[in-house]
Write a structure and sequence with these properties.
480 residues, alpha+beta, five-stranded mixed β-sheet, 14 helices, 25 strands
């Protein structure tokens, strides 16, 4: 039984993605339009993302809590800009228990409003601040066009919500959490990201400032991979949250929110995957090493499996996530292809000759063919595998960085921007345009300002569209 090939990325990246996430067993179709079933292998990948982030949240003093899925409709209406931003995406419950509800309930699109209602009761004094809360939850946003993990009606995420005594503390929190996201993306997911601020046109509804990490996928499109919002006092005033400061004067707190979702699963797939399937960074891979036993006779099976079980135990004892492929009736070649599709970083092959020689064959997923295969002594297998996993993690990040740097192009004029976007790349240039100018460029090219990068060249230059003097450079790209 041969493994089915996938559409090459170079032919149709969208079709490639849809085939990969299905054949790698990450998800399945759901009977509900726009929703997906996350299968065990995909959920384990999400759990690795969740675990990496949760450790970082707790290390920065945040605590997990949980708030209701249903939000009174009146809550959303209290912050006008917020409800206007989400209105087209809301799912609303009007009938429950066979009766029409006195007040419709909105299925959680995000939780600022219902959490602020609780904060009103929890915050009375400056001693109650800062209040640092995170929740892991599902949310619903009614999407017309969906793609697995990237854009679905229901998705999983975390949303942090905090309150602070001063504007400076809230801004520091917003920036700190963006850095947490960037640290996870780079060091765990091996995804290089650009940190920056969203334009007013692109910011979160109801926010004072929105900060983002933007990543380039292998098809050169941008993916907003995590956002952190400084909400100012907008929600505090809308929900009448007040506290007595050290001078015994009543003040509104400054709040923030920040979120990262199962979209990160899609980011990992599209940043690292190739035409053979996934390529998972070892730090987030559900299985770091798969062992494929190779034998023909029962006698060979006996000696091979004895060695396989011993090596598997050694790796497991060293906290390496290992799986032995014990499936019968399928050839080693089929198994090799299957595990390549699933993106397991290291494949170990053990056959009779390996047992006799006291060696093991290690094939790394990030390097194809003979270049990525080596024979190592069984005696030092743990150290050899650990070194290999570290090297694979670094190599995937380096490859992604190289792709990004090769496809960001500096432009000085609008016609140059259009040319870069049409060819498939990111355009970087000076910008002094308006929100209407951004809208025009999006309409004409399909590209948006992904962010105003924190890393700026300094000095001033002529805006690529208006020619006006500008002190900031922005990044334009098509996005998911």
């Amino acid at each position: 039984m041969a493994q089915q090939a996938v559409t090459p990325q170079s032919v149709d990246s969208s079709k490639w993605y849809n085939e990969i996430v299905y054949k790698a067993d990450l998800w399945d179709q759901s009977p509900v339009r726009g929703c997906l079933i996350i299968k065990p292998y995909g959920y384990e990948l999400w759990e690795a993302i969740k675990g990496g982030l949760d450790r970082r949240f707790k290390a920065t003093g945040h605590q997990n809590a949980y708030f209701p899925l249903f939000i009174p409709e009146s809550f959303l209406k209290r912050e006008a800009e917020h409800v206007e931003g989400f209105s087209p995406e809301l799912a609303v419950v009007t009938i429950a228990g066979g009766k029409e509800l006195e007040e419709p309930l909105v299925v959680r699109p995000t939780s600022e409003t219902i959490i602020m209602d609780s904060f009103k009761n929890w915050i009375q004094s400056y001693r109650d601040l800062p209040l640092l809360i995170n929740q892991w939850a599902n949310v619903v946003r009614w999407e017309l066009r969906t793609r697995p993990f990237l854009r679905t009606t229901e998705f999983l995420w975390q949303e942090g919500h905090t309150a602070h005594a001063t504007a400076e503390e809230a801004e520091a929190e917003t920036m700190q959490m963006l850095e947490v996201y960037a640290d996870f993306a780079v060091n765990d997911a091996a995804i290089p990201v650009i940190r920056g601020r969203k334009t007013d046109r692109e910011k979160f509804a109801g926010a004072m400032h929105t900060y983002t990490i933007e990543a380039m996928m292998r098809d050169k499109k941008a993916l907003q991979s995590g956002t952190s919002h400084n909400l100012g006092q907008n929600f505090a005033k809308a929900f009448d949250i007040k506290f007595l400061d050290q001078n015994n004067e009543s003040q509104y707190p400054w709040t923030t929110s920040w979120g990262l979702s199962t979209r990160m699963v899609g980011a990992i797939v599209m940043t690292h995957g190739d035409d053979k399937g996934l390529r998972l960074p070892p730090k987030v891979a559900p299985i770091q090493v798969v062992i494929v036993p190779i034998f023909k006779t029962d006698d060979e099976r006996s000696v091979v499996m004895e060695t396989v079980d011993r090596l598997s135990k050694e790796l497991s004892n060293a906290a390496i996530r290992v799986h032995v492929d014990r499936r019968e009736g399928q050839s080693p070649g089929f198994k090799f292809n299957d595990w390549e599709m699933r993106g397991v970083p290291v494949r170990m092959e053990i056959g009779p000759k390996d047992v006799q020689n006291g060696s093991a064959a290690l094939a790394r997923r990030d390097m194809p063919g003979k270049e990525g295969k080596q024979f190592v002594p069984q005696a030092g297998i743990v150290a050899a595998v650990q070194d290999l996993l570290v090297d694979i993690q670094a190599n995937l990040l380096k490859q992604a960085e190289t792709l990004r740097e090769e496809n960001i192009h500096d432009v000085k004029r609008y016609d140059e921007l259009k040319d870069v976007i049409e060819k498939g790349g990111w355009a970087r240039g000076w910008w002094a345009g308006t929100g209407d100018d951004e809208g025009r460029i999006k309409e004409e090219t399909g590209a948006t300002i992904r962010c105003i990068p924190f890393a700026q060249p300094g000095g001033k230059g002529a805006c690529l569209l208006t020619g006006k003097e500008s002190a900031q450079v922005v990044l334009f790209a098509k996005a998911y």
